[in-house]
Structures are given as C-alpha cells and as structure tokens.
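During the first year of the project, the team set up a workflow for recording each protein of interest as an amino acid sequence followed immediately by a discrete structure-token representation. This format lets reviewers and collaborators read both layers of information side by side without switching files. As required by the reporting guidelines, we include two representative entries from the current panel. The first entry is reproduced here exactly as it appears in our internal archive.
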Amino acid sequence: MSELPVVVVGAGPAGLSAAAHLVERGERVLVLEAGDQAGAAVAEWNYVRLFSQWSELVDPAAARLLEDAGWIRPEATTYPTGREWAELYLRPLAAVLGERVRFGARVVGVARRGRDRVVDGGREDEPLTVHVETASGEERIAARAVIDASGTWGSPNPLGGDGLPAVGEKAAAGRISYRVPDLAAERARYAGKRIAVAGSGHSALTALVALADLAEQEPGTQIVWLLRRGAVGNVFGGGEADQLPARGALGLRAKRAAEAGHIETVTGFRTASVGQGADGRLVLESFDGHRLEPVDEVVVLTGFRPDLSWLSEIRLDLDPVLQAPTKLAPLIDPNVHSCGTVYPHGEAELRHPEPGVYLVGMKSYGRAPTFLALTGYEQVRSVVAAIAGDHESASRVELVLPETGVCGGAGVFDAPAEEASGGCCGTTAPAAIELSTSAR
C-alpha cells in the first residue's frame, strides 16, 4: 500500500500544514477540500483579527516550501485578519502544492476497503477508502493513511442549554446567528436593536466589544449577555498577565464595556426555548422558567463540536465527554486542567485503534474550547513523521504553549466545555480572537 497517497481532509491551516510536511518527506499526498478555495472556513470570518502574531501562524515546513517559490514572509510581530491569513499564506501555500489539492471535493465517508467497523478478518491488509462527492458525481479514493483536518467550523453548538437545539430555535433561525457579527456588512441588522449574546469564550467577548461600540454610536442598541455559568468569574481572562497580549487586551476591553453599562449580564441562564412575543420579537426562556424581555436578534457563540458522522465505519478511541482522542482529552479538559499543564502532544496521543487514521487540528480537541494554530502544526509534524516511519521524530514533540495568567488547578472552570472561559490556551476564529484554525 506504500504507493497509495496519504489523504488529508480539509485545506485549512492544519490540513495544508500536513500536506507541506508530507511533500517535504517525499510522500504522496492528496488534499480534499469541500470549499472552493484554501481556507474556506477562514473566509467566513475574514473580518476577524487573530490574537496570534504572524510568527505563530506559519508552519515551518510550509514556510520552506513557500520561500522556495519566492514567497515573502509577512512581518512577524503583526496580527493578521482572517482575510490576510488566507490571502497571504493559505492560498499561496495551496498554489505551491498545486494539483495535490482538490477543491469542491466533499468527503462523506472513510472505511477499510470491503470491511465495516465490525469485521476483523483481513482488515489490516486492506487500504482505507475515502468516499468523496464532487460536482461530477461520487468516487472512492484508496489511501494508505487519512489525516482528518476538517475542523469544527461547520458544527456550531446550539443555543439550547442541554447541548441540543432549544425548542423553537430552528424555527427562529432567521434571527439567530452562530458567528461573530460582521458589523461592516450587517450594521442595519443590529443597530438600534435589542440583542442577546450567548457564550463566554473569545468569540463572545469579541462580539460584545463590537456591539458595545455599536451601542455608543446607535441609540436604542441594547445588549444582553447570557452566561450559563452562575457568575462572571474569570471569563475576561488574564488581562495584562496573558502571554498572548492581544488576547489579554480583548478581555480587558470586554470588561470595560460591561462595567460601562453597555451590557446587561444575565448569569445562570440555560436556554430551554425560543418563543415569539406578541410584537414578533423573540422570547428566550431558561430551564428554570426565567423569561427574558423580548429581543430582536440572538448571537450564539457557545463553541463548536466535531462532525463524526462520516467516520462511523472507522474504529476511533474517543473520550465520552469531549469527543477528543482518549489520551489527549485529560490534557485539554477545561473542567479539570490548568492552562500551564497542557504539555506538548503528538502522534502518540492522537493515535486510534484504526491504523493510519488521525484527527488533527481543532477537530482533535473535540468539544474543548481552546486551541492554537501552533498546536495543530506540531500535531501534524509528529503525525506525518510517524506515517513516514520516522518514529524518533514523531515522539520528539517540541512546543511551548502560552499561559494565560489566570490558571489554577482543578475546579477553575465551573461550566461545561462549550461555556468554559476562553482564557486558557487558545481559540474555528473582529477585535482580537483566534478561531477554529483547522476548519475547512
């Protein structure tokens, strides 16, 4: 099977990084991207400025490929927007990879050839088969290994406080958004309106800052911040102590906006239903019967979850809580870990019972809310080394993650993963935020 390619799913930052490492090692690689361009998910939050600098957003192997083609590296200490990250890095990298990247190719399944997940007999002798849908029809691609870097951007968590859509949430979809508002394009949608923002991570803080600025400019704009946790606590992060300065600055801006009276904060609110008032506005009710005053718009920023449906015939070893690889989950669980205790990890933690199958990037974190691009780059470096048979390199994981300055021991977080403060180690996505960096 050595003549078969390694198939990478997703042409986002982690997927293209994996491809660059495979090319550098002389391995055959095929990247399958459902969108029509590299970084298709990044393009959906192109107006957002990341809180990582360029020096932390470029994979070393990718940089070597690009520089050989005459690429000029952006200024290391500046903070790009999503648009700049895609235009100045991801798309040039895909262009260098050339025909190794196929766009408009949606992966809908992965399996062992001729074997479902139950069958043991002859399993190890068969290649993986990747089932793909394109504009011209269906096809199957045989692969020696599959690296799933498809991210979680396409699977946002719902508003419902039990992990499922609230009653009436789907019916109200026209007035519920699951991304940070782009006020340059959507100003009329939110100006002068009463807006509920649900969530406590960096996406929510970014939205609150932007909407608070709008409230200063547009009379009648009101913001209601819904927190599932019982108190605000450490939601604003590490501030000046944060080793990612832009991330700390975001928390400070959000804190100032809340203290200035632009934001009404409602804690302990777990949405059970979305109804419609007599005036046609939305009425949110919690599981304990608390009903909010009617709102015009709802912005749901409660994190993301992995889409595992097309991996149903693959033998995965996933944590039952986070849906992350079992060996990785204890390192990233926001309910128990301290930011400073997330030690470097690679192929050993990402390995599954199905040989040659890896989930990397944001998808590897399952429902955990924090992630950095550097983490994904180190993951794929280690995974590709293992696929290439260089086990010494695969085990030599070298990465130091920034701490937030508000780390503590077990119990620091008092909420489910999707509601845990983003003030830990990471992120999927206007002022300063890093989103799902491995999403398609």
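The second entry, processed by the same pipeline in the following quarter, appears below.
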Amino acid sequence: MFWQIIHIIEILLWLLLGASAAYILFFALVAALWKKPVSRLSVYLTAKILSMRADKYYSYLILYPAYNEDRVIVNSVHKFLGQYYPYKSFHVAVISDHMQPETNQKLSELPITLLQPVFEKSSKAKAMQYAMDQIKEEYDYVVILDADNVVEPHFLEQLNETCAKGYKAIQCHRCAKNSNNDIAVLDGVSEEINNTIFRKAHNRIGLSSALIGSGMCFDFKWFRQNVYKLTTAGEDRELEALLLKQKVYIHYEENIHVFDEKVSNKDNFQKQRLRWMTAQIQSLLNLLPYIPAAIYTRNIDFIDKTIQQALIPRSMLVVLSFGLAVLMTLVSLTWCVKWWLLFLFICISLYVSTPKQLRRHSVFGKILSLPMLVWRMILNILKIDHKNTDFIHTTHGDEKSKVHSS
C-alpha cells in the first residue's frame, strides 16, 4: 500500500513536469522546423538605409522609466540620440525616480524631456503613467526602453519599417550586452531561449509573441488608453493580457536588437527571479477568471498566455527532472525510465532553442553554475507574495562588464 501511494505521487509529479516540458518541446521544434520567409530586415545594411525607407516617417515617443539608474541612464540616452532618423520625428523622455542630482543635471543638458516624479512606492507602471500625464503631445508610437538598454543607430529606421506593416504591438529582439561571468552568460542564454520559444516560435504559427518589459513598441493611442490599467510590478504581463483580451496581435521582430545588461551576481539573480515568479503567479491568478470567456470567443492567444503563466521555470525543470531521475533509479529501474526520457526531452528542447553560436562556448562551460541558481529560485518560492505589488529593483553589475558599443 505504501509503495502504491509513492508510485501515484511519482506519476503525478512526472505528469506535472511533463506538461511544462511538452509545451517547451513543441515550440522548440516549431522554431527549428517551421521555416518563415526571410524578412527584408534580416538583410538590412546600414549603408542602404535610404533605399529601405518606409513611405512615411512615423513619430515616436521614447520612454525610459529609470529607478535609481545613475550608472547607466546617461550613457543609454546619449547613445540613443545618435539615431539615423529625422530628429523631429522622435522625442526621448526620462522618468527619473530616486536618481542623484548630478545625474539629473547631466540629463537636463540633453535635448530630452526630464520628468522627476516623487512616488511613495515606485514602480515602472507608475512611471509610465506619470509620463503620459505630463506629455501632452501626440505621437504615432511609444517605445519603452530600460535605463540600461542600448540600441544601434538604425534602430528607429528598422522599427519604422516594421510599423509600416500595421502592427500595433511590437516586441524587439532583446539580447545580452555583457558576458562578464557565468551568471551573466546563463541569464543571456535564458533570454535567447525565451525569444525562441515564446516569441519566434509563437509568431511562426500565428500566435502572439510574449512581451519582455523593454524593447517594446505600441500604438500611441492604444498605450495612452490602457497604461492606466496597470497595477502590479509585472507590467509587461499586464500589457500582454490587455492586448490579448482586445485581440491585438503582438509581433516579434527578431532583426531589431535591443542590448540589455544581464545580471552578473547571485543576489541580483535571486531578486530578479523573485520579481518574475511573483509576477507570473499574479498574472496567472488574474487571467484564470477570463478563461471561460476566452474559450467561448475562441481567443487562442489568451488561452495560450494563461498556459504560459502556469509553466514551471525551465531551469527548475532541468534540475528537478534530473534529480528525480537519479532518485527513481535508486528506487526502481522500471520507474526511472520515464524520468530519464523526460530529462532527455527537456535537454533536447533547450539545446534546439539555444542559438547555434551560444550552444557550446556559452552554455556547456557554465552549466555547473545552474544548480546553485536553481536552489536560489526554489528559496524564492517561500518569499512569493501574490498580493505584493511593490517593485523589486535589481541593480546592475560593475563598470568592468563587457558592454556592447554601437
């Protein structure tokens, strides 16, 4: 009787982990096997910018919500101002929250709008809402960038080409700009796997891309109407839900890069994952009540997004499936077979989802750091408060990080 109960629990655990693994494997194979016609942007050359212009120049408001980002914000804004795009067709606004007077002084000398709100409790959502309150001008699109994000000089030219196709929501290809240690490399690889599974593969079969939180572009009128509905620290997930409820398709443009600084120490990694896990639980709880209506209206995008929020994080899947496979091998050679197969399928999924240039050099030399990072993620489970809406800030690494320069 005892072993029957253990066997039932073991099967239930396998089904729980297997459901997340099956989702990842399916979209990994879609990205690898479902080919898409080459975009004009994939052969984009800076020297040919003028020949690639859309019929018109759209106007863009660039928002930088910046909380305690004194180390990076001035450099990021300064680089963005070097865009190969008509100066009158874009404007940069920095929402300076808890930054030093010296930083604000440097920003005030640049041709931008500097906003300095005073929040009792800061959040990115509040910063964006404040900006939309203060900025009265109308634009065609709004672009959201993090304070550490660096883009190439033809970023707006490329984005303009994509906007000309009529998309109201665009997620650009956010990728790592630093690889100064094992944690930063694994964080960057994790982002690329997300890009493959939740963005590229989804678009390949007609589903909406997931948002990331920066490198996002929205129709200005839509954004102004909906930004005030954001209430949590997981503003990107809330924006996704709002878009999908309204059946607005989210396009992923993998050829427009936004370089993002990856976390490079254990404490920041743990804080970042705690914020993500909290946002994931909050999002799942917020989405579930709308599932019956989504099923009735056949809103496949919304149903898929809800399923995403229920997935077990991939790194936890790897470690848990391997650990349970080893344990089951000691308990029963019959029971362990399905666990080793599960572990194999998860590894295949992650291998296929990782860009070819990162598979050997970037991942397999750093893999020993994974168990420690997963242990910190497991500890985070004890700290999750699904009712908490406070912003959990993660600081950036030291100045010696290897940073992409445009």
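For the second entry, the following points were noted during internal review. The chain has a mean pLDDT of 84. The CA atoms of residues 147 and 177 lie 13 Å apart. Both points are flagged for discussion at the upcoming steering committee meeting.
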